[in-house]
């Protein structure tokens, strides 16, 4: 498969008949960009899979990435992917499903979409499935789904109510001569 534009803003960096690019000028919408593109300017077919995974999670949850999510008694702004992972980790992934679609959808299919969405937003591009596999897995309930790996940065975050922790922080005073 040929990689496509994962964000319309990305179209500005591609030349005619160009399918892959490494750039220092990152364009697009944060939250939908794969980590390797946002941080290193590397775009590939796996970048599209990441963007698709974000869209799947948004559709099933009815939330936008970076929107306010109900993480505690106080609503907090939080990344949708982190929120999905925290619900999965707590065994409450059903809470991610938008209440407006619960009645009219197959919960098994919605949970499958969430699972495929989480597989698609893996930190490591090599751990993400190919889009052809994603399409086949959405179309065939018998396709066995591997377990997604917890994002590296998620394991180090603490979203406890009102708590904040700082680890390995040093203060340095620099003075010129």
Would you mind describing this structure in some detail?
The chain has helices spanning 35-40, 45-61, 80-89, 99-102, 107-120, 131-139, 152-155; strands at 21-22, 42-43, 68-69, 76-77. The protein has 177 residues and is mainly alpha-helical. It has a domain at 45-155: Transferase(Phosphotransferase), domain 1 (Orthogonal Bundle). Strand 3 and strand 4 form a beta hairpin. Helix 2 (45-61) runs antiparallel to helix 5 (107-120).
Provide tags for this entry.
mainly alpha, protein kinase activity, Protein kinase domain-containing protein, Prot_kinase_dom, two-stranded antiparallel sheet, 5% strand, Transferase(Phosphotransferase), domain 1, ATP binding, 177 residues
- H/E element sequence: EHEHEEHHHHH
Please identify, by name, the CATH architecture of the domain at 45-155.
Answer: Orthogonal Bundle
Tertiary shape: globular
Q: What is the third-level CATH name, the topology of the domain at 45-155? A: Transferase(Phosphotransferase), domain 1
Distance between the termini: 57 Å
The class by helix and strand makeup works out as mainly alpha
Please give the share of residues in helix.
Answer: 25-40%
Count of discrete alpha- or pi-helical segments spanning 4 or more residues = 7
InterPro entries: Kinase-like_dom_sf, Prot_kinase_dom, Ser-Thr/Tyr_kinase_cat_dom
Domain Protein kinase: 1-145
Organism: Triticum turgidum subsp. durum (Durum wheat)
Protein name: Protein kinase domain-containing protein
Give the topology.
Blueprint: E1 21-22, H1 35-40, E2 42-43, H2 45-61, E3 68-69, E4 76-77, H3 80-89, H4 99-102, H5 107-120, H6 131-139, H7 152-155
Antiparallel strand pairs: 1-2, 3-4
Helix pairs in contact: 2-5
Protein name: Protein kinase domain-containing protein
GO molecular function, one term: protein kinase activity
Domain Protein kinase: 1-145
């Amino acid at each position: 498969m040929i990689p496509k534009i994962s964000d319309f803003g990305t179209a500005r960096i591609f030349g005619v008949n160009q399918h892959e690019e490494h750039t220092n000028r990152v364009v697009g919408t944060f939250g939908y960009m794969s980590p390797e593109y946002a941080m290193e300017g590397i775009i590939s077919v796996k970048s599209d899979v990441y963007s698709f995974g974000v869209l799947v999670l948004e559709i099933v949850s009815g939330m936008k990435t970076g929107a306010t999510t109900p993480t505690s008694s106080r609503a907090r702004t939080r990344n949708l992917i982190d929120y999905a992972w925290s619900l999965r980790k707590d065994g409450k992934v059903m809470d991610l499903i938008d209440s407006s679609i619960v009645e009219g959808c197959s919960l098994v299919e919605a949970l499958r979409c969430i699972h495929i969405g989480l597989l698609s937003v893996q930190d490591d591009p090599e751990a993400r499935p190919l889009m052809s596999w994603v399409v086949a897995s959405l179309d065939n309930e018998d396709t066995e789904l591997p377990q997604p790996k917890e994002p590296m940065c998620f394991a180090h975050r603490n979203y406890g109510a009102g708590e904040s922790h700082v680890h390995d922080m040093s203060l340095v005073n620099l003075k010129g001569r």
